[in-house]
Write a structure and sequence with these properties.
The chain is mainly alpha-helical. The chain has one domain. Helix 2 packs parallel to helix 9 and helix 4 runs antiparallel to helix 5. It is rod-shaped.
Amino acid sequence: MYQFVMKGGYLMYPIMFCSVLTLAILFERLFALRRSRIIPEKFIIEVSDLVRQQRMEDAMTKCRMNDSSIARVLMAGISRHDKSRAQVKEAIEDVGRLEAATLERFLAVLGTIAGIAPLLGLLGTVTGMIKAFNVISQAGIGNPQMLAGGISEALITTAAGLTVAIPAFVFYKLLRYRVDKRVLRMERVSMEVLDLLDQDGGRG
């Protein structure tokens, strides 16, 4: 493996770094975006029942004790249950945007890797071909071994860049879909609780 990297030239190092970073982001986001960490269904049912029973203090306590995104969003709304619907909705949306941004953490980095990895490979291709043409200009085509070194570098960096970029792009789309799905579910739950607060508070 080390010899393969060395044959690809110095541009293999940033490409390898991108591959390690891609795997690190993937595993971290898969763990962070688990449904149980963001939208625990049991918690939602319990809080909804408490709001339905107008036990707002108990509902807020339940939210404080739960370390999930939806808990913080609902807390923002329930803590303002005596305000107008517009104020409650605005508070929910403000916290919801912050939580959505937290869920999207590192996705921009992953998308950037998917974009720059093939460019690094392309740059390696260019530098490799420059080396090959320098060999031709200095020694002619009578030394195929020296010529093969530059061509090999060009092909290795291209392959390495694409090998990193393709999975990074797939992982980005996969995580993007998961984030959108979680955010949509949080919006639905928030609106359901907002409707319950409206019913209980008699607000229009």
